[in-house]
Structures are given as C-alpha cells and as structure tokens.
C-alpha cells in the first residue's frame, strides 16, 4: 500500500493529530503528506520536536523544524531534554523521555503519530532476538497502542524505507541527516548499516517475512492474553497487587506470563527470564513473611504483604519535621515529588471539608507521626490502628501527609478528619491532595 493510501485511510477515522517531528526523512514525509490532506479531509495537525541537546547541531535541527512548520503553517511545540550526562542506554532513556513529553503534550481527542516504518520494525525484532525476548519482543513495534485513553499510531509501519526515500525525492523535500545514525557503536545502527543490507541482498523478501512474523506473534500474544484474562482478573487484588493464593495454583510458565502482564499494567519494564525466576524464587522463600521486600530495582521495589505482592515506586524517606504551608497560597508542593495539596471552597464535597484555621494558628504538614490522635467521632487511637482502619499500606504511611493547625492534627486528605478539624458550622474549606504516580 502507498504512503498516500495509508494516510488517506487514517484520516477517514481520525481528525486531530500530533506528529512527532524530528526533522529527519521519515517524519518529514509524514508531516508533509498529512499537511496535504488538511483541507481535503478537514483534519487538524500539530507537530512536536524534542531537542535532545546531544551535540552542537541540536539547535540547528530545532531551527530547521521551526522553518519547515512555519512554511507549512503548522503549529510546532518545542521541548528540550538534556542527555549529556547519560552514559549508558542512551537510546532507551532518550526514547522514554521523548514519549513522556509527547504524551504530556497531547490534547483531548488528539492522536499521536510517529513515522516508524517497515525497516524500523525489522531492526526492533532483530534486537529482540539478540536480547532473547519472547512473544512480546518478537511482536515488535505496535501499529496501534491505547494507554489511558491516549492513542499512538504508526501509519507508515507497513511501508518500506525505499518508498519513503522515493516519495521525498519526488516531492523535493528537505530533511535533516543525523550523523549519529552512521555510528556503528549503536546496536540499531550496526544492524541498519552492516547486517540488514547483507540479509536483503541474499533474501530480498526478508522484510515482508519479518512483518509476517511480527503479525503472527502479535496474534498469539493477543490469544494468550484472552485465554488468561479471566485468571488474571482473579489474581489482581487491592491496588493492583497480586493475590498469591491464585498464583500458587498455576504452572510455572503461566506464572511467568501473569507476572509479566502484571508488570505491564503497572507500567514497569519487562524482567528478563533470569530476573523473573529470581523474583518467583524469592516469593516462594518469603510467602509466609509479612511486609518483606522481595526484589529491589532502581525505580521500584516488589513487596509481599498479607499474602499479596505489590509494586512500590522508590521514594526518598521524608524526615519527621514540620513543613510550613503559607496560608495565602492555594497550592502547596509536597517533598520528594509526592504531589501537592490544594484548597477549594466546595462545601458539597464532605470528604476533605475541615474548619479554616484561626488567625493565631499556623498550618503545616508532617509525616511519620508516632503519637495518638483523635479521629472525628472516635476516641483517641494509635496511628498504627488508623493506618489499618483506612487500609494504608506500610510503605505508604511514610509518605502520607497529615495537616496540622499549630499542634492539632486536622486531617489526612482522602483518609480522615480529626475531632479538631470538624467544621461544626464554622468557616470551612476543602484541603485536597493530588498524588504523582505513588
């Protein structure tokens, strides 16, 4: 199928697009052809360029993208990241940061488009084979992905690179040639420049067969998901934890598949088979223990607690000290990127409705409270019993804020209000919390 036909079909279904625009050949072709369809198909397009600040020409690429978008009258978003201090896994880390910025910039009902093509798919699958991946890796790049109501589509994924080059030359397009693409130290470049050309010379049909392999693996992966979906729903418990009782009744290969699926729904990187085996062996060792860390990674840990296993994001410990909140400011940032507190005057929401502080009362936040407090309509009880009553997990207790007026505990947002925080027909407000992925 041609590039034009692919994008024509795409714009029959969707009308608002954000294009990942590097300024290179592939994204330039995607941008140019979609722009041609704006009037004919009544679509709206924006572009986003991420300046990685990798080398001295990064600023030049940014200017080039601005110039192209200005000429085509396309709204361009510029985002910057700094990769200069990253020494390992540069490709993976830059991709992760880039997609984070893409998703953050998406408007409601807008589809993210990237210009991956058939040759990219071939490289990705060969890299998965090199890593010893299973069905997920051999499925390669997905043409359509939906995460949290955000859609990513790669409309050129079934298009050969040669077609893209031909299209660009016929339409006399100008694009950036990234010199780092000729550095064989990168695995992807090594395949692209040295290995794949030799394969295609020997087997010209190889790219088509790679796509066929990808499609077969995707279908088998989907079938496995359907077959195990009912069981997976059974094993998932409180806060996306795994119920060990159901897991122990599965065979080993099924267990490993369910664990990988569990990591995926928690947005964590897939573990190698070696690490998956280590994780399962640690679960078996500690299955009768309570609140034990099973495995620790850079950004998260896996815990066992009351026959459930949890994924816990790594957060620095917060010292038990007062953090003053300026009452004149409506929002208050919590430490260690936990989230922020904010106030509203919506009296309909009773959950976090407390009395306003008196003039002589300072408002501050504390963590890791040890002493007893009085919950609304209850006697004074220990913090441990409060946490248990409201099902706050042990590692969450250390990062759960409690708001004080002077020495009086008032509330912990979305959990409890104390006797001293009871509005009692006094001037009142809501103190709410917005958490960041914890």
Provide a concise account of the structure shown.
With 438 residues, this protein is α+β, with helices and mostly antiparallel strands. The chain has helices at 3-13, 25-41, 58-72, 90-105, 118-131, 135-138, 161-170, 187-202, 206-235, 244-247, 252-265, 273-286, 383-389, 394-397; strands spanning 16-20, 44-51, 75-80, 111-113, 144-147, 150-153, 242-243, 292-296, 300-305, 308-313, 323-324, 331-333, 339-344, 353-355, 363-366, 373-374, 380-381, 402-405, 408-412, 416-417, 428-435.
Structure classification: alpha+beta
The parts where pLDDT drops under 50 for at least 5 residues are none
Relative strand content = 15-25%
What about the largest sheet?
A: 6 strands, mixed
Helix content: 40-55%
Tell me the distance between the termini: 45 Å
The tally of helices reads 14
Mean pLDDT metric:
86
């Amino acid at each position: 199928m041609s590039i034009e036909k692919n994008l024509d079909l795409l714009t029959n279904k969707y009308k608002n697009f954000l294009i990942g625009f590097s300024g290179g050949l592939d994204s330039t072709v995607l941008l140019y052809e979609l722009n041609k369809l704006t009037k004919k198909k009544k679509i709206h397009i924006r572009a986003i360029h991420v300046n990685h600040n990798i080398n001295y020409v990064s600023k030049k690429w940014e200017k080039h993208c601005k110039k192209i978008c200005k000429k085509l009258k396309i709204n361009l978003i510029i985002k910057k990241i700094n990769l200069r201090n990253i020494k390992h896994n540069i490709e993976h880390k830059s991709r992760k940061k880039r997609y984070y910025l893409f998703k953050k910039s998406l408007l409601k009902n807008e589809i993210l488009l990237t210009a991956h093509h058939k040759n990219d798919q071939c490289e990705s699958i060969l890299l998965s084979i090199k890593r010893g991946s299973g069905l997920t890796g051999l499925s390669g790049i997905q043409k359509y992905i939906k995460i949290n109501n955000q859609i990513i589509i790669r409309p050129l994924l079934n298009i050969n690179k040669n077609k893209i080059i031909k299209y660009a030359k016929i339409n006399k397009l100008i694009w950036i040639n990234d010199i780092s693409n000729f550095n064989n130290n990168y695995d992807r470049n090594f395949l692209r420049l040295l290995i794949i050309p030799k394969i295609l010379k020997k087997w010209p049909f190889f790219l088509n067969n790679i796509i066929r392999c990808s499609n077969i693996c995707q279908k088998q992966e989907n079938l496995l998901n359907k077959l195990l979906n009912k069981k997976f729903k059974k094993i998932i418990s409180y806060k996306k934890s795994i119920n060990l009782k159901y897991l122990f009744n599965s065979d080993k290969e099924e267990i490993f598949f369910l664990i990988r699926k569990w990591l995926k729904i928690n947005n964590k990187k897939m573990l190698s088979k070696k690490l998956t085996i280590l994780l399962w062996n640690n679960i078996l060792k500690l299955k009768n223990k309570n609140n034990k860390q099973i495995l620790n990674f850079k950004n998260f840990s896996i815990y066992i607690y009351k026959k459930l296993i949890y994924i816990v994001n790594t957060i620095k410990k917060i010292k038990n000290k007062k953090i003053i909140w300026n009452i004149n400011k409506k929002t208050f940032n919590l430490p260690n990127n936990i989230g922020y507190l904010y106030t509203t005057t919506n009296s309909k929401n009773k959950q976090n409705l407390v009395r306003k502080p008196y003039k002589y009362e300072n408002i501050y936040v504390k963590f890791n409270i040890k002493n007893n407090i009085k919950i609304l309509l209850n006697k004074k009880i220990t913090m441990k019993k409060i946490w248990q009553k409201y099902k706050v997990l042990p590692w969450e207790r250390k990062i759960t804020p409690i708001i004080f007026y002077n020495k009086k505990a008032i509330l912990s947002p979305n959990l409890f209000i104390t006797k001293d925080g009871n509005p009692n027909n006094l001037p009142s407000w809501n103190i709410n919390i917005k958490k960041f992925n914890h």
